[in-house]
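Section 5.1 Outputs to date
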Amino acid sequence: MNCKYCGAPMDEAEAVCPVCGKATDIQEPEPETVVAAEEETSEETTAPEAVPTEPETSTPQKNGRSGLIVALVAAIAVIIVLIVLLVQGKKAPEAAPDNTVEEPTAQTSEEASAEEAPAEEAPAEAETPFVPSVSYTKDADAFDEETLDQVVAIVGDSTLTNRKLAYYYWREYYSFVNMYSSYVSYLMDPYSRLDTQAYTEDQSWDQFFMDSALDTYATCAAAAVKARAEGYTLTDEERASLDGLADDIAGYAAQYGFASADEYLIECFGPYCGLESYQDFMEEYILGASYLNALLEAQEVTEEELNSYYEENKADYDAAGLEKDDTSMVNIRHILIQPEAVELSEGDEGYEEAVQAAKDAAKTRAEEIYAQWQAGEMTEESFSELAQENSSDGSASNGGLIAEIYPGQTVDAFDAWCFEGGRKTGDTGIVETEFGYHIIFFVGQCGESYWHSIVSDDYEGVRYQKLCEDVKTEYPAEIDLTKAAVYPCNVVA
């Protein structure tokens, strides 16, 4: 796993990040944000009133490299992942054991009469069940050929029937559940019919996901229509992803115990789905995503534009704690040697001596490993190998690499070493922190400052959103929601 604050890799058993010093075992029903080691914010984050299918960037957040090109541009990377989510997570929640009910004990009449009778409470008012104004969720017997072929939306030469609608709709659902995985139950019951659960006072989650699905379709289809009109074609890598789709899904189907790719897709998207229709969906989806990405990459952004965007949103960036510091982010590798835990407790006789002995042993071990590296080739590769073999930090599996560290992100001693004046590639040293002894190899500067990376990502999101709006304006969608129907494949019997 990775630290939710600084992004450094961690072992599952670690409760505190050995790089930034933040405790990671606190369960919070809010999205996590990256916070500098000594600048924790106290802002509360509430569940969203809406989750757009396109990136929202009106309020920049201090959240690391934000990666705002999501959904459409990331389509290829999530071809299989979103499907796997269902198979991994679609199960009824286990009932927690009820330890609050005590077994009744025998009681004499005298004891019973001696007890004070509880005051009568007014009966609780029954909660009014949510009744949606419309439901798109239908049972399996509703999906005859006529229903499946009903046209829900048209964009140019692209037609969306209920056969393909299922993929857009459940893609929105799986993305949402994945995004809010640890606290989705605070928002809804992900394993019950969505048309019976209120998203707002007058809208169900079923309606919310349908609106999101149709907006994604409108964007993706419009981009695909424009791409075809301009003769745009997929890259070789994108075409290879599509060509290998059948084998990929068949492999996942076998891995999770399904007899075929079709059976797997039926479980994920509905009883009328299968490999052929899924491939048609992905063909359009990836074409639209690729075209939008190509348009985005073709845009040239000047430093003047970025600075103007920053100044326009300065109040938001200030509130998020983002300072306009031009110091370049850095990449390092490190090997963490932690002192062994002592058996004594604080306050016990000999405790301080035992702790110091453990620290001394860790220091000696760090010096031995450092000397071992110095006696060898003294390369980054050899350092990486030693990190994999010896580091107790979660980054060990990646050769101790921690990328794009910015000033103030890590604990003081570590931060001071990384950003010491004159630091250059190949510099090494041992740094003591409250977590132990870090043998550090300075990989180099990233060439970009933290504020610049955040603002660049945010501005990229704004430009992407405008591309989406422009293409939807050029090729508007004609939508008939009265024809829409989806099967409740998230429901667990």
